[in-house]
Fold:
Amino acid sequence: MIKLGGSFITEKDRPYTVNWEALQVGIEQIKAFYEKHSPHMVIVHGGGSFGHYETQEVKRKRGFIDCYGVALIQRSMMILSLAVLDTMVRKGLPSSLHPPHSFCKNENAYECNYEVIVDDLEKGLIPITYGDSVFSDKGKIISGDDLSVAISNKIGADCLIFSSNVEGVLDKEGKVIKEIKKGERISINKNEVFDVTGGILSKVEKSFLSNARNVRIVSGKDIYRALMGFEVGTKIANRS
Ligand SMILES: Nc1ncnc2c1ncn2[C@@H]1O[C@H](COP(=O)(O)OP(=O)(O)O)[C@@H](O)[C@H]1O
Ligand SMILES: [Mg+2]
Structure:
């Protein structure tokens, strides 16, 4: 289970801008691993300057996420997801795109219906999904981090790799925290541009909910090495 962070594949401070170079770098590594080990894998991507920005704008202009707001956010994420799909397929990876709003009724990623994703995975496709907006009693956001953890457990993933635009979880001095144990208090600097679903601390908290053997938060440049089990980025010691 690989999450391509929105901070990695988009330019987070430029609305609606794909970071094509980073996207290529990330997917090149996924391809290298795929060709070497023919793994089953699922890709989730984040919102970056598409979903997070759009949500912020919807809330600013409309006060809350109404039906039209949901449509705007869904559209922005669908555009970004096509960039991911396109890059995957151009590199020869047999990918299939699954918008969460067609298999999740609300924002709780644990209540989504993953049947079709699991089915595709078993057939040899590489399912792609992403953080999205759905309308339940009002407009809600499904976090890509939540989807990643829920899917990692659903498919019994060995690895759950979160990638972003920094080398891992950074401490107050900006140095990578090598390992975080459950319940351990960490002190970090929060300098997120915007993240409507909780940011880095909540990513760390959520990642402890995965049963995967190898859970890491790494730079998008280190996805291959993380999948290989090398000591890169921040290890989430979810099993000790
Ligand atoms: N202390 C920290 N350590 C690591 N990342 C941090 C820290 N503080 C803020 N961040 C930011 O957290 C963000 C993670 O976002 P990411 O999950 O990749 O994006 P998205 O939510 O769009 O998928 C990055 O932009 C990163 O710079
Ligand atoms: Mg995030």
